[in-house]
Design brief:
Shape: globular
Helix content: over 70%
Distance between the termini: 16 Å
Order of helices and strands: HHHHHHHH
Structural class: mainly alpha
Number of helices: 8
Largest sheet: none
Number of strands: 0
Length: 210
């Protein structure tokens, strides 16, 4: 079983990651605004399928890697922290893309919506790093099966991501209009996310191997 404190810490990182603008968020917002909430939800189902694929592949692969390579944990820990710092910089840099910078999309079928959501997620480097670099840092072998802990953490990430993205799908139009009319709040969101990501990166870098 995953330790409660580790589960909470991983949940907070998952929350910060899903609230950081990326391909998934931009696609879901653009699709919801262009084609409606139903299209956004179908696209979200595709995104969730991509999460499950990543979770299963990463859980099996991470289990084998941590057991076989002595310094794999430290390598993944540092790589994950550096990636969080890069995300923080991209959120805080002066010419950062606004969170609700939308892209006009054509009307597509349900199958294409689902497929595009899945492909967008599978090609999202943020999700790959989330599972390959960040997730292993919260696994404690002395607490039981590494595979079971990997799956538990993956389910936490999927639940938070689907929940937040679901809220985004339903409120995309309203939030997009509000933030475009109130750039001050967009700036607050940008600085909040950048600060949280940087703090998480520093915490990971200062953490010793368990």
């Amino acid at each position: 079983m995953v330790d409660f404190s580790q589960g909470i810490a991983f949940a907070l990182i998952s929350l910060a990651m899903v609230l950081t603008p990326g391909p998934n968020m931009i696609y879901l917002i653009s699709r919801s605004v262009s084609q409606g909430k139903s299209a956004g939800l179908i696209s979200l189902a595709g995104v969730a399928t991509g999460f499950v694929f990543y979770m299963l592949c990463a859980s099996l692969g991470v289990t084998a890697l941590l057991m076989a390579v002595p310094h794999a944990y430290d390598t993944l820990r540092i790589a994950g922290a550096l990636y969080l710092l890069w995300l923080a910089w991209n959120a805080l840099r002066p010419n950062a893309r606004p969170i609700f910078s939308l892209t006009a999309l054509h009307q597509d079928s349900a199958l294409k919506l689902f497929t595009m959501g899945c492909v967008t997620n599978l090609l999202n480097p943020k999700i790959a790093v989330m599972y390959l670099s960040l997730l292993p840092q919260f696994i404690q072998p002395h607490h039981g099966s590494v595979l079971a802990q990997s799956l538990q953490l993956g389910l936490i990430q999927i639940f938070i991501s689907v929940l937040i993205n679901g809220v985004i799908v339903f409120s995309a139009g309203t939030l997009a209009h509000f933030l475009q009319q109130k750039p001050f709040w967009a700036q607050i969101q940008k600085w909040l996310m950048g600060t949280v990501l940087a703090a998480l990166a520093i915490r990971i870098l200062l953490e010793s191997r368990r």
